[in-house]
């Protein structure tokens, strides 16, 4: 152990490009120079750590679970006041993390800390990776009021975020929106789901609400345009899908993004996916869960690859949907046909994305002699039944 250096990776962006820094786990020293850039990138993409052997001068990728516990525990920690109940609550955040939530203790702790401190958090990552679920886990864990607003489905931002004016018996009346009522609730957690799909006017309305120095909303739909101050302790959590894959998403305004602290939600590796599904579906056969996790992991690795054949992947949301079907009596062939294949492009016949995924699925079928795929009929996403 003494001749080995273990590192964890922290990612950031500079000029729109990802920048990776490797920190030694037992000293927080920057040891990026010890590892090749491609090795660091691959380790980050696969949610892994790094190991450098000082005797051989060689580095390699390792699983997070392979980090020596002694090294992790000996990492320097800031001195905190033991008698501060808020700091004590933050420190013990991992103990209130839901069993069915696969998120690192550090990121969960950061979420809890932001909640109790009334900070704004933006959770980014591919669709279906667990952003919304993580945000919805906070109210129960922290015992705080919760309000949910799906901005991606909002057709009229002013009505949704401010309110409506209407006439009754010759009088002009103003009805506050549920969002205004949420702002007036102390210590509330307000989830702004699918912020990247919201209308730009919604972003403009939110600018003063999210600004730490302002924290107000002007009700300019009302006659006297009163100002509503955001109540004490209110925490905003936004979710966003960022990338060219999401055609209905807009490029988020930089001024809006600067009002948030960013948490990148990790894509689960096979082991993490398997653990999550076992917790959610304890009665499901473990071999089936292993097959589902492996199918998902294979598509994710192919999607991440620079020369990969897939433009999307099997998300955690899709694996949960798949297991729901398996619990309800579908076999793996039937379940993947309706829950997985429709998300992959059938164009190109035997070279299509859908055919590639079918071949991945076939490895887990209980037959060796029969080709269960109808490759000629890709448009119908047909997988033959297993005998």
Keywords:
387 residues; alpha/beta; Rossmann fold; five-stranded parallel beta sheet; four-stranded antiparallel beta sheet; 14 helices
- Class computed from helices, strands and strand pairing: alpha/beta
Low-confidence stretches: 71-76, 243-249, 378-387
Q: What is the H/E order?
A: EEHEEHHHEHEHEEHEHEEEHEHHHHH
CATH topology of the largest domain: Rossmann fold
Estimate the helix proportion, in percent.
Answer: 25-40%
CATH structural architecture of the largest domain:
3-Layer(aba) Sandwich
Main β-sheet, in a few words? 5 strands, parallel
- Give the oligomeric state of the chains in this entry, treating copies of one chain as homo and distinct chains as hetero: single chain
What best-fitting shape do the alpha-carbon axes yield?
Answer: globular
Q: Evaluate the radius of gyration.
A: 24 Å
| N-to-C span | 52 Å
Number of helices: 14
CATH superfamily of the largest domain: P-loop containing nucleotide triphosphate hydrolases
Give a brief outline of the structure.
Helix content is 34%, strand content 19%.
């Amino acid at each position: 152990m003494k001749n080995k250096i273990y590192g964890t990776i922290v990612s950031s962006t500079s000029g729109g490009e990802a920048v990776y820094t490797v920190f030694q786990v037992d000293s927080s020293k920057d040891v990026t120079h010890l590892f090749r850039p491609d090795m660091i990138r691959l380790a980050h993409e696969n949610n892994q750590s790094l190991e450098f052997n000082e005797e051989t001068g060689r580095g390699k990728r390792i699983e997070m679970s392979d980090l020596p516990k002694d090294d992790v525990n000996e990492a320097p920690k800031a001195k905190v006041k033991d008698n501060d109940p808020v700091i004590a609550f933050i420190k013990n955040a991992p103990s209130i993390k839901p069993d069915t939530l696969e998120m690192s203790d550090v990121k969960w702790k950061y979420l809890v800390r932001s909640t109790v401190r009334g900070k704004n958090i933006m959770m980014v990552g591919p669709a279906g990776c667990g952003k919304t679920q993580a945000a919805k886990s906070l109210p129960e864990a922290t015992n705080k009021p919760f309000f949910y607003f799906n901005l991606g489905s909002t057709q009229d931002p002013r009505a949704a975020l401010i309110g409506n004016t209407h006439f009754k018996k010759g009088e002009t009346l103003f009805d506050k929106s549920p969002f205004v009522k949420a702002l007036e609730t102390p210590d509330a957690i307000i989830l702004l789901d699918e912020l990247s799909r919201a209308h730009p006017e919604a972003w403009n309305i939110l600018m003063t609400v999210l600004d730490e120095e302002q924290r107000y909303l002007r009700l300019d739909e009302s006659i006297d345009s009163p100002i509503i101050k955001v109540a004490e302790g209110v925490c905003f959590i936004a979710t966003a899908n960022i990338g060219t894959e999401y055609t209905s998403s807009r490029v988020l305004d930089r001024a809006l993004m600067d009002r948030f602290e960013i948490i990148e939600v990790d894509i689960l590796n096979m082991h993490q996916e398997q653990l999550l599904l076992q917790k959610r579906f304890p009665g499901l056969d473990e071999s089936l869960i292993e097959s589902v996790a492996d199918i998902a992991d294979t598509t994710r690795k192919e999607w991440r690859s620079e020369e990969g054949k897939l433009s999307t992947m099997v998300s955690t949301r899709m694996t949960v949907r798949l297991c729901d079907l398996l619990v309800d009596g579908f076999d793996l062939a039937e379940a993947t046909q309706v829950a997985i294949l429709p998300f992959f492009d059938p164009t190109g016949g035997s070279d299509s994305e859908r055919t590639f995924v079918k071949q991945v699925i076939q490895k887990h079928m209980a037959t060796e002699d029969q080709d269960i795929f109808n490759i000629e009929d890709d448009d119908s996403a047909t997988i033959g039944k297993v005998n």
